[in-house]
Amino acid sequence: MDSLAGADSAAVEVRAVIGEFWIRKKKIMAGIEAAEAGTSGEIRVHLSYDRKEQDLLEQAKKRFHELGMTNTLERNAVLIYVNPALRKFALFGDQGIHEKVGEEFWLALTPKISERIHQKSPTEGILLAVQIVGEALKAHFPAHEKNPNELPNDLSKS
């Protein structure tokens, strides 16, 4: 009986963790959707749980290219690469956005996100990064008028 009770308790705990993960995922997805509204830019978040990961910026660059994020018309995509297990992150912006905001933007954003990730939660840090990057994209890359009959270039975009 004890092992069954333990299994039930473990199953409830697993469901709670999965439920919490989906709530966080939905919050982040909603944050991205809001941040991308009104801009031609693209924001993606990648979560890595590799506890042995060393150079997150290099991993972010690699993932950025694997996702085909250099294919935006104005080269204005940004990847927010987060390793919640290590409480570390990297920001990688394509050439177009980097030319507009400069190195100072990324340097000023980094401690704000870092503080949230360390003091509150990775989700809060991600949401702050998404919001600030979205504001920069809207300022420098406003949305273009789209033909309602035109299909999006990337139907797999998440």
Mean pLDDT: 83
Helix content: 55-70%
**N-to-C span:** 45 Å
% residues in beta strands = 5-15%
Tell me which oligomeric state these chains represent: single chain
Please tell me how large the radius of gyration is: 18 Å
Low-confidence stretches: 1-7, 12-17, 153-158
Number of strands: 3
Strand arrangement in the largest pleated sheet: 1-2-3
**SSE pattern, N- to C-terminal:** HEHEEHH
Number of helices: 4
Helix/strand structural class: alpha+beta
**Largest sheet at a glance?**
3 strands, mixed
Shape: globular
Fold and architecture overview:
This protein is α+β, with helices and mostly antiparallel strands and 158 residues long. It has 4 helices and 3 strands; from the N terminus they run H-E-H-E-E-H-H. The chain has helices at residues 2-36, 56-66, 95-119, 122-140; strands at residues 42-47, 77-83, 88-93. A 3-stranded mixed beta sheet has the order 1-2-3, sandwiched between helices. Helix 3 (95-119) runs antiparallel to helix 4 (122-140). The radius of gyration is 18 Å and the shape is globular. 27% of the residues are buried.
